[in-house]
Amino acid sequence: MKNVANKERILKIKEILYQETDEESGLSLEDILDKLKLEYGSDYDVSFRAIKDDIETLNKTNIYIEEKKIKHGKIIYSQIDRLFETNELRILIDAISSSNSIGFNDKNRIIGNIKKLTSEKIGKQLFNEKYASNKKINKDRTFRMNVDKIHNAIENKNKVRFQYGRYGLNKEFIINNKKYKGHPYNLTWDNSFYYLIAYDENKEKIINFRVDRMRNVEELEEGFSKDREFNLNKHLESCFNMYPGKVETVKIEFDNHLINAIIDRFGVDIEIEKKDQNNFILTTRAAINKGLVRWVLNWGSDAKVLSPDSLVGEIKIEIEKMYNKYEI
Fold first, then answer.
1. Mean pLDDT over residues 144-156, rounded?
2. What's the predicted TM-score (pTM) here?
3. Of the four listed, 129, 151, 177, 254, which is most buried by Cβ atoms within 10 Å?
4. What pLDDT does 197 receive?
5. What order do you get walking across the sheet with 271-274 strand by strand?
6. 136 in Cβ contact with 199 (< 8 Å)
């Protein structure tokens, strides 16, 4: 029989309970002994009293193991105290799966690791085919390494240097020869993409860079001082779909059926007033830019900009351009 130290046995019991029990299922002392025999050999033997003592030791170390009596007086043990609840794990998985910045293989690897934060049984229930959506957007495996480099640079207050690129008509990724040098302020998510908010030394202004389009990222041994007047929330308020622009009060008339879409975009605290039986008016502060123009036009004739006049003018120009494309 293999000689197993008490400490090793306790750790193995901890692993068994973590992987194979949850709120819905548990293991008896007999079951745990069978699992130990699978690990250490069929001739391995230990008393039920010793296993029970090990479970009590785990409880004393703030690893809560629930003891529950089921049919016919049988007692089972379950680890139900987890770092994340099942619904929280679902939210994490949905967030990863919906990201347009994370590649297919990385998504599956990260989701696989998230599933290990609960029992194997619940982990299998968390799987869904939609999580493995194979959208070919970012094949570059260096993406997560670039994110790590940027996080380190932000933490160390060091400048970064990188190149930027876009996809061409042949679906090949074309890297711009220009090298950007910037002060990394923050990383943020918007519309399922990861953005670096950085001060560009060449353009001498804050620019939002899509991280999945960044290549050859370097953390430089050159520090920077963050502008004390920079405020992340104010900066994001000055952008619409991450396009920068002058923030103004905007009034837009919408068809009533779009109320949920507007609340999804702006939140329940948004200022809305009923105009008539069929329409309501949204009043909000937004950055006037191409992102806003194209977002409004996305709703077709169900949306009409009322003010400011500058935005109305840009909408009319864009509509005219669209009309000219279809004019026979």
1. 89
2. 0.60
3. 254
4. 92
5. 271-274, 279-288, 246-255, 303-307
6. no
